[in-house]
């Protein structure tokens, strides 16, 4: 007996050492729980042996070392299941020791304050460190270790080193498996069987097993035999194959739903793309099989889901990249120097997409919930298949996701096409993997326009093909994306344009909104061109950021109807604010009691307003169709709905500006003054003015001195009781806001018309003077009368037409609501005047001809006066020449009447140069006369002296030239009368009057 | 069954449970029934080392057999 005990003791100590070595090996492999569990179990076994074993036991204590030796011989490296088992052993042992030890808080508090050491008592594995009187088992462990002479010291040291980590790990395990602990309250074996049974059912675990074997003969009545048979047929051999991992279809569907939520599952995983992001969903290599589907069909269905999941995952990473960029922009610590800018529209778009992805995830989770409920008998029974899930998913998400990605790719592609015609690998990557940084090269306003346009088109297309679900989702995304731009529009209208009053340091105060479709040019505020060109609608630019000539304006289609109004309102508000008027101060007076509404609210109002239930109740198809139609109509007319919303704000600003122009700046008064002078509408006063000028001309004096003109104007103004003009008008000086309307280029038109009228008056005066002399011979008087008649006709045309046009313009101007409209009306009016005065480039030849006629008149007058002087001196010579001239004249008249032959000649007139120089010296008058200087008729260097050519010859030549010129004018006027322009009828009247020439 | 017999059975059962735990922790891949058989064999005087060798040999044979079937 003693020998046996001795032998047992020695063998037991050897076994102890072996167990300790295994535990040490486990600790080296950072498997502390395994080590602790092993030591604990061995100590427990020894305790049982020392307490209860009798010699006649079924298992004798003396055989324990042999049994352990046997187990060690068969031992293998630990597997994950081994580690889990170690956790279970530790937790169950702790449970038992807690109950057995009866350690309470009261007892702990009564003892000495060995804080932290109390807990060591809970873990008997480190018994050599605990106090020996805690439990019996712990003392036995200590004695066991102490009995080992060699290596025990080392083991103790290692234990002390690892005790803390072991304790921590153990307590972690305790926290993570509370549920498992419940199973061990009763019999531990039973509990483990339950757990293992449950684990076998968990398809994601290695140890999960199928309920049915894979290799079974094909049975037509048993679909679960199909996959194995199909595999066998595909391999061409009838040998049996290894049992693959098998999964039920309902579990496969749950895995697919996990996949859609971006989570790896036993059947699928996400692979990294070129950016290193795990976006590419793929099927795992050892995918668990379905027993009733062939591998090919199973793979095909799963690939569909993978495509879908890849799209979802790509969009998740797109959204993530947008958020990261935003984070970088707003965090100064993260913001690098050359950080790409982020469009707020893109950000809103990403948020909309994020919301949509979230919806899809919620949908997936709900599907899974339904499955779980149905499986546990809580909900309604459900048929769950991969195909039904695929169909449901297609309805829910597929179309919309493809459209969203397509929109983003098209936006990028458009930018790539613009930048270069060649394609690089980098471009393909940009299109393949959508990231926020790729969009930073596109100007924010262009990006906003393209995104909104493409989204809007997509919504309309989906409505058109009856995809109400997709259209509704996309329209929500559209509304979310349009929100920042709509807000910018509101801000632009409220604050108005930014006016820089020559203070460069303020330039960076508030940069222009890059999202808005309004472009600011670098033009000074006081420049007359500022109003028209300082702020314009955005247009397409080329790769060098230069505007494409005649390029289309870059305004989103949905905002196109209101773009011009918004631009004008912002300019008006900015101008008013600069002057010191707040147009929205008394906002209730304009009927605007509400604040600027968000876009979603406007859209909601629009759709609810336009979707009444016209269909009879109960007819769901008709209701759906009707709703579809109504939503479609509402979306199509969204631009005009927005215009309705914006109009009151714009109108209020414009009305205030109009009030300012008409009342405070007396626009009409200034206009009347300008027209009175430049269009010579003040008949008497202007006649007096012209007479003063002509007197100066006749006296061969310089007349184009500004001081002389001012003096002349002042004198003529005094003729009327009420002064109607200021001398400043010659220099075109008007109060500030009116400069936008009345300054260049309109000033040039006014001066050119003035020049023409002055030329007419000059010719008229000269001819009238001849008539007054009354001593002309009949032929000469005929020519003079011809001149007079023709001049009269032109004069009628210009005077009457001008007058009518001016009156029409005044009427239209008073009806105009905005300064832009006024400018447009004014420009149209001046264009019309230019056309009527033959001052446009297309009628330049006609204008030159008219000037030639007027010059002829002047030349004739001069010749006549010279002739009269000579006649007085030499009456005889005059008689001869008169007779000769009479003969030739009669002869030529006959010939002309017979052949109606046009013989034109022109002359270089002293008067023309006089006239031209008279027109071209004062300020803007010079610019108006540029053409007439160049366009003189072909020159014949004649003088008014009759040394070379007699007066009769000269008059004949003049007569022929006049005839030719008038005929040319008549033909040209006929052509003008035949056009479809609004002024053609006026030229028709002139043409009719010119018919008299031949009579 | 007397109370002594019951105690003996319970004690043996507990010992076997702990042995099974150790077996699992050492990853011997023996299920409970096989372990019980092996324990009884060792109790009957079988050399544990020889028994372990036999089991390993049997496993190897079984693996070869399965591999042959798959081919």
Question: Topology of this protein?
Answer:
The complex is a heterodimer of chains A (about 1000) and B (about 70).
Chain A: H1 2-28, H2 32-52, H3 64-73, H4 80-101, H5 105-110, H6 136-146, H7 152-176, H8 178-183, H9 188-201, H10 226-235, H11 249-260, E1 268-272, E2 278-283, H12 295-330, H13 344-375, H14 386-419, H15 425-432, H16 444-464, H17 468-495, E3 518-520, H18 530-534, E4 535-537, H19 560-579, H20 599-609, H21 620-636, H22 638-664, H23 667-678, H24 683-698, H25 706-719, H26 736-742, H27 746-773, H28 778-815, H29 819-836, H30 844-873, H31 875-899, H32 910-919, H33 923-928, H34 930-934, H35 951-977, H36 984-994
Helix pairs in contact in A: 1-2, 1-3, 1-7, 2-4, 11-13, 12-13, 12-14, 13-17, 14-15, 14-16, 14-17, 16-17, 16-21, 17-19, 19-22, 23-27, 24-25, 27-28, 27-29, 27-30, 28-29, 28-35, 28-36, 30-31, 30-35, 31-35, 35-36
Chain B: H1 3-25, H2 32-43, H3 48-70
Helix pairs in contact in B: 1-2
Description of the structure:
- The complex is a heterodimer of chains A (999) and B (71).
- With 999 residues, chain A is mainly α.
- Chain A is 65% helix and 2% strand.
- Chain A has 36 helices and four strands.
- In chain A, strands 1-2 form a two-stranded antiparallel ribbon. A two-stranded antiparallel ribbon of chain A has the order 3-4.
- The model of chain A is unreliable at 1-9, 121-186, 504-508, 612-618 and 895-944 (pLDDT under 50).
- Chain B has 71 residues and is mostly helical.
- Chain B has one domain (3-68).
- Chain B has helices at residues 3-25, 32-43, 48-70.
- In chain B, helix 1 (3-25) packs across helix 2 (32-43).
- Chain A binds chain B through residues 22, 34, 37-38, 41-42, 44-45, 48-49, 52-54, 57-60, 63, 66-79, 82, 85-86, 89, 188-189, 239-242, and chain B through 7-9, 11-12, 14-19, 21-30, 38-40, 42-43, 48-49, 51-53, 55-56, 69-71.
- Chain B: One of its GO terms (biological process) is microtubule nucleation by interphase microtubule organizing center.
């Amino acid at each position: 007996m003693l020998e046996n005990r001795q032998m047992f003791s020695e063998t037991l100590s050897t076994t102890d050492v072996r167990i300790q070595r295994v535990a040490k090996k486990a600790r080296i492999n950072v498997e502390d729980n395994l080590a602790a569990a092993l030591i604990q179990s061995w100590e427990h076994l020894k305790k049982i042996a020392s307490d209860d074993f009798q010699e006649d036991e079924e298992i004798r204590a003396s055989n324990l070392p042999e049994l352990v030796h046997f187990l060690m011989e068969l031992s293998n490296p630990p597997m994950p299941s081994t580690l889990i088992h170690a956790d279970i052993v530790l937790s169950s042992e702790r449970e038992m020791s807690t109950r057995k030890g009866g350690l309470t808080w009261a007892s702990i508090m009564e003892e000495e304050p060995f804080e932290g050491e109390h807990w060591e008592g809970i873990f008997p594995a480190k018994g050599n460190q605990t106090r020996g009187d805690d439990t019996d088992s712990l003392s036995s462990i200590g004695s066991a270790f102490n009995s080992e002479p060699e290596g025990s010291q080392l083991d103790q040291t290692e234990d002390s080193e690892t005790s803390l980590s072991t304790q921590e790990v153990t307590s972690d395990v305790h926290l993570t498996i509370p549920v498992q602990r419940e199973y061990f309250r009763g019999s531990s074996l039973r509990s483990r069987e339950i757990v293992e049974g449950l684990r076998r059912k968990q398809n994601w675990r290695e140890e999960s097993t199928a309920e049915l074997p894979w290799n079974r003969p094909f049975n037509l009545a048993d679909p679960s035999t199909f996959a194995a048979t199909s595999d066998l047929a595909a391999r061409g051999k009838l040998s049996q194959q290894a049992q693959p991992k098998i999964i039920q279809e309902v579990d496969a569907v749950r895995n697919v739903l996990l996949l859609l939520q971006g989570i790896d599952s036993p059947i699928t995983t996400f692979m990294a793309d070129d950016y290193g992001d795990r976006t590419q969903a793929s099927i795992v290599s050892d995918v668990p099989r379905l027993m009733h589907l062939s591998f090919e069909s199973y793979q095909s269905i799963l690939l569909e889901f993978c495509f879908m999941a890849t799209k979802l995952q790509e969009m998740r990473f797109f959204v993530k990249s947008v958020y990261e960029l935003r984070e970088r922009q707003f965090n100064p610590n993260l913001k690098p120097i050359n950080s790409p800018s982020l469009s707020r529209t893109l950000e809103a778009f990403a948020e909309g997409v994020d919301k949509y992805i979230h919806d899809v995830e919620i949908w997936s989770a709900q599907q899974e919930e339904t499955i779980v409920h149905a499986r546990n008998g809580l909900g309604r029974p459900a048929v769950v298949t991969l195909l039904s899930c695929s169909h449901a998913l297609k309805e829910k998400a597929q179309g919309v996701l493809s459209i969203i990605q397509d929109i983003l790719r098209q936006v990028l592609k458009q930018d790539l096409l613009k930048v270069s015609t060649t394609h690089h690998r980098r471009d393909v990557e940009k299109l393949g993997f959508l990231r926020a940084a790729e969009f930073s090269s596109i100007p924010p306003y262009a990006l906003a326009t393209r995104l909104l346009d493409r989204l809007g088109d997509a919504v309309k297309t989906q409505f058109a093909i009856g995809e109400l679900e997709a259209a509704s989702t996309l329209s929500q995304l559209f509304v979310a994306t349009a929100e920042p731009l709509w807000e910018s529009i509101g801000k632009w209208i409220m604050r108005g344009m930014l006016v820089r009053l020559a203070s460069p340091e303020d330039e960076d105060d508030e940069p222009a909104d890059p999202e808005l479709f309004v472009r600011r040019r670098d033009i000074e505020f006081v420049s007359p061109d500022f109003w028209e060109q300082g702020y314009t609608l955005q247009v397409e630019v080329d790769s060098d950021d230069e505007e494409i000539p005649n390029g289309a304006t870059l305004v989103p289609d949905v905002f196109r109807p209101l773009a011009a109004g918004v631009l004008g309102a912002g300019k008006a508000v900015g101008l008013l604010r600069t002057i010191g008027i707040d147009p929205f101060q008394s906002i209730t007076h304009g009927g605007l009691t509400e604040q600027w509404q968000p876009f979603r609210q406007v859209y909601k109002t629009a759709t609810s307003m336009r979707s009444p239930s016209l269909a009879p109740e109960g007819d769901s198809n008709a209701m759906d169709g009707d709703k579809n139609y109504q939503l479609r109509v509402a979306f199509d007319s969204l631009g005009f709905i927005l215009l309705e919303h914006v109009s009151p704000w714009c109108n209020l600003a414009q009305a205030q500006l109009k009030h300012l122009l008409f009342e405070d700046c007396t626009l009409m008064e200034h206009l009347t003054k300008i027209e009175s002078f430049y269009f010579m509408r003040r008949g008497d006063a202007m006649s007096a003015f012209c007479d003063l000028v002509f007197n100066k001309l006749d006296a061969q004096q310089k007349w184009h001195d500004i001081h002389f003109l001012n003096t002349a104007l002042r004198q003529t103004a005094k003729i009327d009781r009420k002064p109607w003009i200021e001398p400043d008008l010659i220099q075109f000086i008007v109060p500030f806001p009116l400069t936008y309307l009345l300054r260049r280029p309109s000033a040039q038109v006014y001066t050119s018309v003035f020049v023409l009228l002055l030329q007419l008056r000059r010719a008229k005066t000269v001819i009238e003077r001849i008539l007054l002399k009354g001593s002309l011979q009949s032929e000469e008087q005929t020519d003079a009368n011809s001149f007079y008649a023709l001049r009269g006709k032109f004069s009628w045309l210009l005077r009457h037409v001008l007058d009518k046009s001016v009156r029409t313009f005044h009427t239209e101007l008073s009806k105009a609501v905005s300064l832009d409209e006024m400018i447009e009306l004014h420009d149209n009016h001046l264009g019309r005047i230019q056309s009527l005065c033959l001052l446009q480039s297309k009628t330049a030849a006609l204008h030159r001809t008219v000037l030639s006629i007027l010059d002829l008149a002047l030349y004739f007058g001069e010749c006549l006066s010279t002739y009269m002087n000579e006649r007085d001196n030499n009456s005889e010579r005059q008689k001869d020449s008169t007779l000769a001239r009479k003969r030739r004249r009669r002869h030529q008249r006959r010939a002309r009447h017979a052949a109606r032959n046009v013989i034109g000649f022109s002359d270089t007139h002293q008067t023309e140069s006089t006239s031209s120089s008279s027109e071209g010296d004062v300020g803007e008058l010079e610019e108006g006369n540029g053409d007439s200087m160049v366009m003189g008729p072909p020159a014949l260097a004649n003088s008014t002296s009759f040394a070379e050519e007699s007066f009769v010859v000269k008059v004949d030549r003049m007569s022929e030239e006049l005839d030719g010129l008038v005929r040319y004018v008549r033909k040209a006027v006929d052509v003008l009368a035949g056009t479809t322009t609004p002024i053609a009828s006026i030229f028709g009247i002139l043409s009719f009057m010119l018919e008299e020439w031949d009579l | 069954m007397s109370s002594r017999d019951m105690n003996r059975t319970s004690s043996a059962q507990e010992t076997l449970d702990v042995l099974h735990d150790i077996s699992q922790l050492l990853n011997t891949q023996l299920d409970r029934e096989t372990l019980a058989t092996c324990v009884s064999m060792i109790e009957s005087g079988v050399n544990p080392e020889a028994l372990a060798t036999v089991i390993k040999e049997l496993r190897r044979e079984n693996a070869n057999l399965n591999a042959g079937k798959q081919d």
